Amino acid sequence: MKTPPDHVFGGILFKIVMAKNIFILALLLSSVAVGRADGSSAASVRQRSGSLYELVEKASRNQIRRDSDGFRVPTDGQLKAWRFIVESIFAGRMGDAQQMIRQLSFPYELSRFTERSDGHEYIVLEETVPLQAGWGFYVFDPASKNPLVLEAPHPVFDSNTEFQAIDAFVQTGASAYLLAGAHRRANKQDTPCNQPKSAESSATYPVSDVAHAVATPFHAVHEALVKVRPAMVAVQLHGMTDRQTCPSAFISNGSPSVTTNSRKLLGCLTKGGVEAEIYDGDATCPLTALSNVQGRFSNGETKDPCKNAVSSSPEPGAFIHIEQEPSIRKDRSSWQPVIDALKCAFPGSSADPAKAPAPGRRSYVFKAGDNPAVTVFYHTPAKIDNKTRVIVVMAGRQRNADEYLDPWVDWASKHNYVVLSPQFSQKDWPEPLGYNFGNIATGREASNTPNPKPRWAFTVVEQMFEEAKSRFGLKAKEYDLFGHSAGGQFVHRFMLYMPENKVRLAIAANPGFYTLPDLNTVFPYGVKNSPFRITEDDIRNWVKTDLVLMRGTADLQRTESLRQTPEADAQGKNRFERAAYMFERVRGVDKKTKWRLIDVPGVAHDQKGMALAAQRVLEAEL
Ligand SMILES: [Zn+2]
Question: How far away, in angstroms, is 213 Cα from ligand 1 center?
């Protein structure tokens, strides 16, 4: 059977694009990106959630079949576009990646995918079913600092390696997962790449065998990853038949040399009870991976990995090829020891907190309507159930939402809370109006322009809670809200301007100054001339809310970050005094107010100390 003509394939019309046109298109896309605040384009990327493992099952089930001649060999232009897509994803330019897919009519969908089991967000590049091209299935984690990349070039043929690789990807917290979209023997045509004699003599490699052909999107993704992650260590999982001459696991580096990384992995496999050997140029097991084109590329042969083998692997080792006998890849429990060995050999990378140093803080990007994107740092308990609660943490003026997350992590695991710490950037939500006042208005405090309610940061927080419910599968109907410093200012005003909120308990810790329950004092110190009218009824309802004012008894400094206008100083000389003043004014409105004033002994202007104290308050309400 002949390869189908270049422009028509499986009923889909691919645009024929020359390499130079891709370059122009890429330039065009990146120039469009310059004007945008978050670097994303108008093309929106679908959000979805589910199980990565199930996506791999689907990809494996639907792959282009053996002897079907169904794998479409991409043109140079298409490969270039494919690399551009991957580089864009890692540069945070999702819109550009999306646009390239659409412009070239690739039968692919790009999505932000939340893994249900742990709430972590990945980028998924998935071919639509039925497959038209067989270009592979990819999962990316651009936020990962992990050098590992997991590759499954021979799904189905090397049975179960695709599933073992996705388990390894998730457990190690790796940067990427690559799965071939076609059976290695889908097409009959031979690859033009060299096939050294050291490999299986009976084997020929077709153009659909991604480990031996460079004109494949799989190889293009590998190339792009080496560019965006120069320190990457690609681990390729393969399967072999039972062989007398081979151990259960046979490691090689794509060259006759041994590297620090492969030696470490060998040690970990052996320690874990897996019979393993490493290829050092002289071995009886013939599966030495010398013809593997990803190996050649990672080992430095970037010019022509199709034709040229490499003589050695640069240290500490960028490519690890593992051949495995059926006994160590027949099901989840049998393939776990190899994954454990990967975690052992690359300990800083593990996503398993029990076995390695704490993983990096996790985050996702939340976008409400036309508002600028907000990065949400988060933590989830080991298991989310019907009783899981939600705490929203509002950072101070430095907007270091990542650091604000930290003191809540252990506590949240213990008390079954999901923690959301949204980062309202200074650039998109400039203080004070943009953040401390919930972006209810823009401009200067005295002469401001009210913003429509969908633009309010207050609104964004409510919507973030709603979205998190579906993202993490939460049953909670309300949430707790904690803010420190500028975040504490946010919290008390939120309760006034957003009375329809879903907050159960609000905690405002060490705010710099207050909006008083006072119709005669001018905004922002009172509510006279407020951007949105506040009535006496609004104030009565406000002081009935369940709000805790917390003050550190050592928060007495008048630093430059403390507002020192006459109106602010009228509330007290420091944050400690101002909290008491506010509380007295609230009691002046309603003696039986639900508000509480709680002192935190010995703590200064310190978010961590206040967070720990807030946790005691929350525990008392559980
Ligand atoms: Zn293989």
Answer: 13
